[in-house]
Write a structure and sequence with these properties.
Blueprint lengths: L3 H11 L3 E3 L11 E14 L2 E15 L6 H6 L4 E9 L2 E9 L1
Parallel strand pairs: 1-2
Antiparallel strand pairs: 2-3, 3-5, 4-5
């Protein structure tokens, strides 16, 4: 599996504004992608770990509900759409992504 900075570069190809676990004092520029580590899935064989994959929660935020950014994220391998919601007149698409 790839490294987090590789994932960051992939996101930057979709939207220029990408934030990894941004602190609350960061002013976000929209549209953007915010992503954070969620958990790690570990496969075991013979009681020993042999493979681990990091899981990320990825949120695409945009003012325009018809933007295609969420569609582009949805096309990434091992990605699943979890939910959509609006807050503060912003559209949020939330995904789970294994990378």
């Amino acid at each position: 599996m790839g490294q987090r900075l590789d994932l960051h570069a992939i996101f930057k190809q979709i939207i220029p504004n990408v934030y990894f676990q941004p602190p609350s004092n960061v002013n976000l520029v929209y549209p953007c992608i915010i992503y954070e580590r969620s958990r790690m899935d570990i496969r075991h064989g013979n009681n020993n770990p042999y493979k681990h994959t990091k899981r990320y929660q990825v949120t695409v935020i945009s003012r325009n509900p018809d933007d295609t950014y969420a569609d582009e994220v949805a096309r990434l391998p091992l990605c699943a759409h979890d939910t959509f919601f609006t807050a503060d007149n912003l559209n949020h698409d939330v995904f789970t992504l294994y990378f």
